[in-house]
Amino acid sequence: MSGTSSQIADRQLAGDLTGRAALPARPVRARRKARVRRAFPLAALVIAGVVALPVCLVAANLLVPRGEVWAHLAATLLPELVLNTVLLLAGVGVGVSVLGTGLAWLVATRRFPGRDLFDWALILPLAMPAYVIGFVFVGVFEFSGPLQTALRSLFGAGFRLPEIRSYGGVVAVMTLVFYPYVYLLARTAFGEQRLTLLEAARSLGETPRGAFFRVALPLARPAIAAGAALALMETLADFGTVATFGYRTFTTAIYRVWFGMFDRVAAGQLAAVLMVAAAGLIVAERRARGRARFTQTHGRALAAELPRLTGWRAAAATGACALVLLTAFVLPTGVLVAWSLEAWAAGRVASTYPQLVTRSLGLSAVTAVVAVTAALVLAYGIRMAPTRLLQGAVRVAALGYAVPGSVVAVGVLLVLAGLDHAIGAAAGRIAGVSTGLLLTGSAAGLVFAYLVRFVSVSFQAAESGLARVAPSMDEVARSLGAGPGRTLREVHLPLVSGALLTGLILVFVEVMKEMPATMLIRPFGMDTLAVEVWQRTTESLWQEAALPALTIVAVGVLPVVLLTRLRRR
Amino acid sequence: MTRESRVRLEGVTKTYPAASAPAVADLSLDVAPGEILALLGPSGCGKTTTLRLVAGFETPETGRIVVGGRVVDDDRVHLPPEQRGIGFVFQDYALFPHLTVRDNIAFGLRRMPEAERAARVRTVIELCELGGMEGRFPHELSGGQQQRTALARAMAPGAEVVLLDEPLASLDPEIRATLRGEIRRTLKQAGKTAILVTHDQDEAFEIADRVGVLDHGRLQQIGTPEEIFYAPATRFVALFVGQANFVPGLVDGESIDTEVGRLANEPGLAPGTPVDVMLRPSNVQLEADPDGPGIVTARVFHGSERVYTVRLPSGLELRASLPSTSALAEGARVAVIARPTHVVAFGRGQA
User: Fold this and answer.
1) Whether B97 and A295 lie within 8 Å, measured CB to CB
2) Structural element, H or E, at residue A259
3) Which has the closest alpha carbon to B238: B58, B40, B32, B27?
4) What ipTM is given for this predicted complex?
5) How buried is B327 (Cβ within 10 angstroms: 0-12 exposed, 13-18 middle, 19+ buried)?
6) Higher-confidence position of A375 and A438
7) In B, residues 86-115, which contact A (CB 8 Å cutoff)?
């Protein structure tokens, strides 16, 4: 490149001017560096392209002429699916907003017994996949469950609780699992609000309640909206819970159409519609966060000396937090432990359990390493060459997290089938062998799907880590005589390693919990803990589902602890 | 004091939890209607706490606070801030970022009929010279405009008392200088009673009618800017409001004998008392004199004035401020003449 050679010339000139001889090794080294400079962004572009491909393929379904399949879907399935999904989103949206905001306000602005514990413990329900708490609730509250049986023996055979497998049941369960998204963001927003803003409202004649509704709440609204959008993305992506509750949504329909009718076109169409909904949520979330920037202001944050609640108010605050924590985490975990022990005592723990654990851990570990490596390449690529093309490609690649697992699965299967077909044709022509479903039938396909879904998690971690390395640090290191290698080892790595570890753990846990994509893509017989939970719950064998579920929850607690430690800092 | 007061503090004490000493200790003061009082002191002296006590954001342990004849704080009463009807201008302005200038100003006028509210907002906007800014959000305003908006918002509900906490601290020096006059004019024009908290003596002197100097939660002195500057009650006040020389002297009946001459015994101290006489640099005059006792050891140019350091035979160094047109060279011999406005002397070893 002419630019590079002229730089070299400049440097030699500079060397001459300062009276130092330009080292002969310089141009060689510079050329090698230039190659690295080009290689990284190129690799990043390839990775982003491959990861973005499945999502793009599903999106392409929107452009495919609709035809008969669509007409049939539109007439039969769609109206119910759309209505169900909208109702679900509305219910969960209101639920998580109210619950998350209320708890966040309480914890951020008041002192009461147990507050410091609730502050972090209220995030714990995030460790619980929705499908786990879902089947625990069904198992406990269903007609033949222990609770209703006990109540009947107390109050007579005619006693009934409302049916748990209902719209209200689904909304309640999802609210309990997904409120922490709102809680986390609103808690931070309230915590960062300047105390003087509330005091200003008071000095202008507002009561504390008025100050909350006229100042604190409007200021936290972007954070609340962003949290709600995240919760709704999870709601949209959920498969296990709605399936257990018999509530039909797009995710269950895709599964049914794919496996029940083997209709790939129809599944693709449904996935495309679902993706449009998810895209809407992404836009909503971005907008909310964008507005939040304007309201970020400096100054004294809510002081350490918060008003202390006393008497019945304190009891009510503690009670409310405890009730949420108990129903959303403590009691379900307790039930899982009890059921696991029952299954153990009855000798009904699956003999494949150790194998399932190994496989889940293995898949999670492999994916985590692959995802973090890919994320590093992406992040460094953008840092070196922040071109529009690369940034756009990475943005599309990072969409996977917002796109439901079922949609990702459909896209990945389309890619793999195409590849298998091509490989098979080539192998047949060249060697005369049949390769069959080489990729579709392997764990590699599964890891690829996880990568598509979760690479944005590791990318965000890598990017935030790299953001700590100011460009001037590179220059300082170089000016002090450290080469690119030493700069990477002694400056970048120590600064970035923490973020990378976070990325590893987050991806690891996400893969452990992932169910819908695994269900659709896994090669026959390749069961994971999540699949095992699904299979046992479809047979209503709650006790047998408990131990695998408990294992997933135990791993899921990891990132919550991590998050808490990060926030403490 | 017998004069009419709008704000009165009587023996107010406030200690924060986990603090060893009270933030405000046994503080009493009066502010007359329409008067502007500045509370001046270093950071941590309790001046902001005093303001927050008056506003009702903090509760005193002991003492009484009376605003406009109404007891707002004593052993039994603690009126919440929203019922005190006191305007507060925060150091960081605390403008509501989600509201426009107009809506910020109208925030405290919720219970007012629509037409009256609009008229009030217009009046205040005019008074504070915010015309044309009504539709802007706080982050779209300059620092000075934010400050004006905060003042306008505090005055809009018709509060008779306005409290200002370091209102100019976060502004550039040039804007600060112009806004000082503006704040005083605005408050006077609206006829408000105001308490201003600041650590900048220029700000206190320019804006306020009277200045109270606080240290360690205690009121050291309260008086007009001139009294505070030329007749400080303590060494702390003397040093906090400007540069000061302390010249040792001995009281000899009607006068005080010092190295720079005899000064009138204005404080009426007992003969034979060893004292330190305070001299502001502007009260020390120098004249070129080859036989003079002083030697110029340093000179610093400050634009319109020049500050000289002069060593006396005893080794005492004095600072003298002269017009910068004066031209005494370093090393020059000078005569030193003390011309104090008031003679202020502190007993040796006394604070």
Assistant:
1) yes
2) none
3) B40
4) 0.81
5) exposed
6) A375
7) 86-88, 90-92, 94, 96-98, 107-108, 110-111
